Structure formats: C-alpha cells, structure tokens
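Here comes an entry:

___
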Amino acid sequence: MDTPEDNTAVIRMKRDFDSFLSNTSRQGLPRFDLDRSLDMSLNQSSQSALSIKVLLDREKEGRLKDAEMAASKSKILQLQSEVDHMRTSCKRAKIEMDLNVGNMKGDREREEEMMKELKAKLKYMSDKEKNLKEELEACRGELKQKNAEFEAKMLAQQKEKVQKQQMLQQLRDSSKTKIFELQNDLMKCQTETQQAKVEVEQTSEQLQLQLKRSADLSLELKELEEYRNTAQQAEHKIKMLEQQVSRMSEDAIMTQAMKSQIISLPALEKEVRKLREENEYLRGTNENNLLLKEQAESMKKKLERLEQRTEEFAKMEVENTEMKHRLEKWESVDSDGVRIQNPTQMSQRIAHLQEMNAVLLEKQGELQSSFHLEEENGRCLQYKYEILQKQHDQDKIRSQHLMEQLKRFQRKLLLFSKERDGYKQIIDSYESELTSNIGSLTTSRVQHLEGVIDGYRKQAETLEATISKLTQKLTDYKMQGSHKDTSSSSSLSTDGNGVVPRSHMDNTDQKIILQLRERIETLEKQLEKTEEEKYILESRMEQRHLQGDFDPTKTKVLHFSMNPVALAQAKKKEIITELTEENEKLKHRLKLLEESEGKVDDLTMQVEQKMEEPCSSKEIDGLKEQLSREETKNKRLMEVFKKTSQEFREVCYQLTGYKIDILSSNQYKLTSMYAESPEDFFLFQQSSSGEVQMLGTDFSNTLEEAIELYLAKQDSIPAFLSSITLNLFSRQTMMIG
C-alpha cells in the first residue's frame, strides 16, 4: 500500500469505476469491466491481497446497486406504462362521458319537451275535468230544482185532490138531500092521490044515492048512466092522471138529477181535463226526471272513466319515465364494450343472441333426441335381453329334458347290452348245434351283430358326449335302422332255408325298429325346432351387434380420449353457462343502473359483487306465490264466468225459446227449441251503428210472409221471432194431436 505502484493501481481502479458508472448511466444497462480491471490490478499489484478484497467488496456492492437500479427502472417503466394506460382510459372515459352527457342532454331536452306536452295535455284534461265537474254541478243543481218543483207540484196536486174529494163529498151530501126532498114530494103526491081517490069514492056514493033516488025516473037513469059513463071516464082520466103524476114525479126527479149533472158536467169535464193535463205533465216531468237521472248516471260514469284515464295517464307517465331510463341504460355501453346507439343495433344484438339461443336450442334438441333414442335402444336391448334370458331358461329346461332322454337312452343301452349277451348265448348255442356247412353263415351273422353292437356303443358315446350333435345321432339311428332291416332280411333268409326258427327274435327286432323310427321322428322334429330357434337367436344376435351391443367377455370397448360427442356436450354446457352468466350480469347491471339512475362509478365492480352475493330466494318465492294465487284467481273467475254464462244461456233458451250461438264477432245464430231440424235457424248481424239485421238462410227463405209482415212493415224482430215460435209450437202440437 506504501509503494507508488499501489497508489497508481487504486487511482486506475477508481477511474475504471467512474467510467463504469458513466457507461451504465448512458447506456441504461449495468456493465462492469471486471476482467480488464482485474488484469490490470493483477499485472500491476499481484502482491496486494487487501486491495483484491476491497475490490471484491466493491464489486459486490456495485452488483447489488446495479440490480436495485435495474429493478427500480423496470418498476418505473411499469408505472409509466400503467400511467399511460390510465391516461388513455381516462381520455376514453372522458370522451364517453362527454358523449353520454350530450346524449343525456338531448334525452333531457326531449323529456322536457315531452313533459311540457304532457303538462299541456294534463292542463287540458284538468280544465276539461273542471268544466265537466261544473257541468255536473249545474246538472245536479238543475236536478235539485226540478225535483223541488216536482215535489211542489206533487203537493199542489195532492191538495187539489183533497179539495176535489171534499167537493165530491159535498156533492154526494147535496144529492142525498135532494133525493130526500124528492121522496117527500113523492109522498105528498101520493097523499093527494089518495085524497082524490077518497073524494072519487065519496062522489060515487053520492051518485049511487042519486041513482037510487032516481030509479023511478028513466031520465034520471039515463042521466045516471051518463053520469056513470062520465064517472068511468073520469075514473079512467083519474087513473091516467095518476099515472101521469107518477111519471111526472119520476121525470121531475130525473130532470132534477139531470139538471144537477148537466150543471156539474162542464165543471167535471174541466177538472178531468185539468187532471189529464196534470197527469201528462207529471208523466213528462217523471220521464224528464228519469232522463236526468240517466244523464247524471252517465255523467258519473264519464267522471269515473275520466278518473281512471287520469290514473292510467299517471301510470303511463311513470312507465314512460321507467322505459326512458331503461332505454338510456340499454343505450349505454354493453358488457362486451359495444355501445348500442339506436334500436336497430339493439334489435340486431337481440337477433344475434336469439340466433345463438336457437342454435343452442337446436343442438340441445338434437342431443335430447339422440339421448332419447339411446334410451329407447337401451330399453329395446333390455327387452331383448330379457327375451333371450327367457329363451336361455327354456333352453336349459330343454337341455334337462335331453339329459333325461340321455339317461333313458343309457337305460336302453343297458337293455341292448343284455340283449347282446342273449344274442351271444344264442350264437354259442347255434355254434354248438350247427354243422360245418353253415359255419360261414354263423360267422357273418356274428360279425353283423357285433357291428350292430358297435353302432349302439357309438350312439351311446355320442349321446353322452354332447346334445348338439343331433344330426349325427339321426344318421346313426338311420344306419341302425338299415342294419336292422338287413339283419331282419338275413334272418328271414335263414328262416327260409329252414335251418333255425327265429320268430321271437323278429318280433323283438320289429318292436325295436318301430321305437327307433318314432324316436328318430321326434328327434328330427326337435332338431328342426332347435335349428329354427338357433336361426332366430343368431339373427337377433346379429341385430344386436349391428345396433352396437357386444359381449363384454369377448369384446373390449375402447373410448376416445377426445370424444367429439363429449366435447360437443361440454362445449354446449360452457356456452350455456356463459350465456346465463352474461344474462345475470346484464340483469344486475340494469338493476344497478335503475337504482342509481345512470350514475354509477364502478359498474363492473358492483356487478361482480352482486354476482358474488347470493340472490334473495324469499323474493322469488313470494313472486311465485303471488303468481300461483293470481293464476288460481283467474281460473276461478273463468270457471265462475263459464258457469254463469252457461246458466244465463240455458235460462235465455228456456225463457225465449231460442238458443243463441256466436259464429263470429258480429254474427249470431238463433235456433228454436221447436225447430223440426237442426238446419232450421236464423242468422243475425249487428252493424257498426248497433242495428241488428237478419241474414238470409234456407229456413228464412220459407218465411217470406212473416218477414214482410213483421220485419218489412212493422220493423219488429221480437214479434217476428215470437210468431215463428208460436207457429212451430202449433205445428208440433198438431203433429202430437
């Protein structure tokens, strides 16, 4: 360290370090020329160990500082990029906000114009409502006045009625007094007539005395006769006068009564006229009162309608504002970053989403149909498997039967072996009995019998080995039958030679042959059945193989790792989940925009928070309950309406005698309960003005007289219908009679 070489080395090292720092500051990358400095230091100061340690420490510090500088620079670059990104996003947000503010201002101006128009309409409606209320109040005042006038008139009429009743009572009393006076006059006349009668009697007595006195004189008699005649005439005149007096008295009574009536007639006629006029006036006032009442009711109904319209108008205003807010929200930026500026873009977006939904629905339908087909195929295979299982069970039962038959054949084999032993004994006896001439025949016979025995043995072996070789068994049985035939023929030939009588052997052989033939026929039938069943089973197995069925013991199924069906299903599920998530996000966004009235700072963050939050199931349950209640109410109302309408139709049918059916909006079909056929009906049509007109039918064409009388002349549809009901009723009663 004390040598000058060491000092120069240190100075050089400092220079190199300064140059390194300057190079790093210029280039922006950490570089340090360690090799050169080390070479210089090693060449110049190889002896100083302390300087090397210092250099190493400084090198480490420099590397750490360089690493820190690089990290800080990278952080600065990241922050600068983030700041630039934020600036661009802020600029975009400002531009979008300016556009939104402009749109909002335009919408606000439109809304203000709409509000002004609505306010003007509301003022007009309110003024109209006030005018209507004033008119209604005026009508009510007029109604009250007219009611008061009507009540006053009614009171006046009641007073006049009381007065007239009093006048009538007075007239009755006066007529009674007059009748009493006339009766008194009549009594006086009667007394006068009685006095006249008494006087006449007195005169007649006097005349009789005079006649007695003048009996002697004829002149006096003549005079007396004349007096008598005159007296008779006088009596007759008196009677006539009495009758005239009675008639005159009656005429006087009648004349007096008629005079009183004639005197009172004009007054009564005047009173009757007045009463009629008052009655007509009262009827007119009553009709006016009814008209006014109807007008008042119509005005009330109009007022209620106007109130309903005002309420509906208020609701429509609220709905209009809500729809405007929704339109603004829909016109705002979508989640995909696309701004919907007009309804066409919105409709295009909706159409695109609907197309996507339709494609997904089609794919879902195809997958569901394929799934249903697979399920049906599985069911068919299950059914076929059950059928095959049943057939397998039947085959097992048949195999058991065949095993039993095999046992029977084994028993028969034992019998055949016993027969063979018997045959051997017979052959031995034959050998002992027969001469040398027939030795060849016996040997051939023995060989033949041994061949038959070998055939039986082979047959037993085939039956024990397997049941499937039925064809071989049949051939064996056929061969056995042929051998038996040959043996029987040979036995017959020997019997024909007359050497040995063998009738017993022939009978047993024939029985065995018959049994074997029967057995062969049964086995052939069983073989045909088994072949048919085998063919059916093979065809079914081929069909199942074609349908994709397999035997898991023989075949191994390999599934693709990238199965296209599974991939399509997974893709479809992902698309459905994405669409549902987008739908929920849009719903939450709409709700947030509606709640905050378009003033949201971090809309996406709030939407994500809403998506993370669990949905309120209570509201959904409440809405579902309300929906179910409303549906039940609607159903009940519809049922009640149907019931009441049906009852009303039946009552109208029973009362009027016509069944009314609505063919279209303004056409009505009327069929009478007394109609002779279902084709006898009328058609009526109601015009826009409310008039009802009859349309032509085959039945109406037969009733021209009634149509001319009641419709053309009198213009009365009810009279026409009632006349036709009476006509049809009379026809039916005549037919019953």
Notes: Residues 657-736 form a domain with the Copper Amine Oxidase; Chain A, domain 1 fold (CATH 3.30.457.60). Confidence is low (pLDDT under 50) at residues 1-6, 24-35, 434-439, 487-505. The radius of gyration is 69 Å.
